[in-house]
Amino acid sequence: MYAIVEIAGQQFKVEEGKKIFVHRLETEKDAILEFDKVLLVEDNDNILIGEPAIENFIIEGKILDHVRGDKVIVFKKKRKKGYRVKNGHRQNYSQIEIIGIGEKGTIVRKETPKKEKVKKVVAPVPAEEPATEIKTKEKKSVTKKQAVKKIAAAPKTKKTAEKKEAEKKPAAKKTSKKKE
Hints:
- By secondary structure, the chain is mainly beta.
- The protein has a domain at 2-103.
- The protein has one helix at residues 153-167, and strands spanning 2-7, 10-15, 19-23, 32-35, 38-43, 46-49, 57-78, 83-103.
């Protein structure tokens, strides 16, 4: 048995136990809804077509969750003008499970099995008795390493002094050629 129903302005083919995503409905989670815009019903090769909807026929659904869809990139461009706009959009959806299809008052709901919470049994842990002995903390002795003094500092200064003397030599004079 299946039916075609209009939910939030869109048409969906639904069956009992089927889960569908529709545009976000403003109801809380785990709420049971009735959709009365049933357009077509097929039951054992008997087809009922509404004009535009079948009267006294409803579909019941339970809202499982409110989710968001995948991101859709919207890119606008006008060539040779330097106009580029990039936007993203995520649509809000409600996930609905169809729990019943039928006439008003005669719907037998197909209940979804609820998961029972399993309680974990934890064996009681015996409390430990506090130790009567007091542990003393041993301090580690810290030894500082002394920096090694540089003894060869004097020869370095002599080398730099020699270099300075070499730098102070007068530059050779250039003779300019006169044009005649």
